[in-house]
Structure formats: C-alpha cells, structure tokens
Structure prediction request, 253 residues.
Amino acid sequence: MLTLQEQLEDAAALIQQAKRIVALTGAGISTESGIPDFRSPGSIWQQQPPVSYQDFIGKPAARQQYWQSRHRLSAQVAAARPNAAHLALAGLEQRQVLLGVITQNFDGLHQDAGHPPEHVIELHGTSRFAACTLCGKRSSMAELQERINAGEVDPRCPVCGGFLKSATILFGQRVPEAELARARTLVNQCDLLLVVGSSLKVVPAATLPHLALKRNVPLLIVNLQPTPLDDYADVVIHEKAGLVLPPLVTMIH
Prediction:
C-alpha cells in the first residue's frame, strides 16, 4: 500500500510528462466549498428527492417543490468560494499545460478561480442563469430568485410563456449535444485525463474517460470514494481534492 506522499510523487510524474491535460470534475471538488453533493450529509436531496424534468414540465406541484428546494441550494451556491483544489487547477492552466475543464458542477467556481469561461465546459449547465424550458432564452437568475422569494410560485417566460428554471440539467433532461461534443473533442486532444471529485457513475460524463483509455492516454483519479475506473487508472488517490491538488501542482517543475 503506497503512502500519500508516494501517490503524490507518482501523480506528479504523470503531470510532469503531460502537455495537454484535461480535467473532469464532479461534485466532490465543490464539497470543500460548502456545496453538499447528492450523497453528503446535509444534502437537500437526502431530505427531498430532486424533481425530474418530466415532472417539472407536467406538474405544477413539482415546479413549486423545485423552487422550494432550490431556495436553500441557491444560498449555499451564492456563499461558496473556490477552494484550494479549484485554485490548483487554475494554476495548472496558468502554466499552460491544462487545455480546459469539463465539469458536472453548475456552481461557476472554476470560473471564479480564474479559468476563462470559454475553457470551462459545464455539462450540467449553470445555476447562475435562468432559462426558459420552451424557447431557451436566458435571463438573470438573481432577478428570478427575487420573484420567487416575493411569492411567485410558477414563473413564466415573458417572451413565450414557457416555464422558467435555473439553466441547469434536471434528472431526465438531456445534456446539450453541443456541450457533450465539445467535451469529447477536448478529451480526444488530451495526453492526460485528470478526474477530480467525480464518482464516474453519472452518464454521459462517465463515458468520457473511456475515450482517453481507448487512446492509451494516462488516467489520474482523485476522489474520496472508489470509482468504476480505478482499476484502469494509472494513479488513484482516495483523498480530498483540496489536500491533493495543491501539493501536486507545487511538485511539478
């Protein structure tokens, strides 16, 4: 069994050899910023299962439940700041060895850490904007949240009358094909795939490492819990991202 220091040295050697790193991040990178993931204690989803896209569209009661549960989540996201792991990834990009970040998160913390927005692919959308489910028009999430807080229970789009929600992907809603295509293109360009804080159980994000593995591209996984691809990875570190990534970045030259 390797010590953490030995694992870090092995991971640093992988990064040292790479020139086109792509990071795939999941909820585990943001838990250290105070945003619980679906399985963490304190997660709103443990107390109230998330509303599916089909129910959101078809049931007024589901839309009301969505806005009630989102009220607490929006406060957690608004209070969150990039943690040491986010900043370490931004440091990799500043060294010009990170091509971009593909994230399952909708909190915008990668951009806050210093990544240019065009270098962050948000597979599950963003909570920083509102979007119409019918025409797709985006608007201010802050303004929409104010309407909800003031008592509006089923907000509609002023353009087409469609239902409004945050510009995030709900269960049962398809990831936009354009974003998925961008993610696949990015992974096909990398010479190291760095997975941080993802269980690799949610598709389509979980399919992306397979693209790298098919090309014999090294896979480095940093996640608290085991993932289905641990046996295929070159280095696996089961630790908090904020504990692993900062010393990892400082170890490379």
The domain at 36-79+125-168 is CATH 3.30.1600.10 (SIR2/SIRT2 'Small Domain'). The chain has two domains: 1-34+82-124+175-253, 36-79+125-168.
